[in-house]
Amino acid sequence: MTISSMTVAAACLTTANMAGQDGGKSVCFAAVDASGALIYLYRMDGAPERLINIAIGKAYTAARMGASTEAFRQRLWNEQLSLADFLDEKFTSLPGGLPLFEKEQLVGAIGVSGRALEEDVVLCRQFAERIQVSL
């Protein structure tokens, strides 16, 4: 089971529209399936190109770890680990990535990048809430 790209697209556009009206910086939104493969990417007008890989990396990490990138970052800290310990060059510990579950089964993950990390987390949660309504 995976998330529908149409569901993600609708949730993303709603979230991006709201983000575009709050006066903050433009961001990138990414969604991956449960394996971490990209299924959707949206780059707001004016968002730097470098944000694309960061948003994808956040979503990928959340999917592969089955946890938020915030939780993954805390795990690295608590266990004195580094990203290199996981032998996956696509991993990031930057907050702003969330896994998506349907009936306790991982169905995908999302990532948001472009603002202060705390703001990325807020936007990512809003994005996730809009997707979860449709699952």
Could you name the key traits of this structure?
single chain, 135 residues, alpha+beta, globular
Overview of the molecule:
This protein is of the alpha+beta class. The protein is built from 4 helices and 4 strands. It has a 4-stranded antiparallel beta sheet with strand order 2-1-4-3. α1 crosses α4 (117-134). The N and C termini lie close together (11 Å).
Query: Fraction of residues in helices?
Result: 40-55%
Written as H for each helix and E for each strand, in order along the chain, the element string is HEEHHEEH
The total count of strands amounts to: 4
- The chain-level structural class is alpha+beta
Radius of gyration: 14 Å
What's the overall geometry?
globular
Kindly report the average pLDDT value.
Answer: 95
Strand order of the largest sheet: 2-1-4-3
Distance between the termini: 11 Å
Strand content: 15-25%
Number of helices: 4
Poorly predicted ranges (pLDDT <50, ≥5 residues)? none
TL;DR of this structure?
This protein has helices spanning about 5-20, 50-65, 70-80, 115-135, and strands at about 30-35, 40-45, 95-100, 105-115. With about 140 residues, it is an alpha+beta fold.
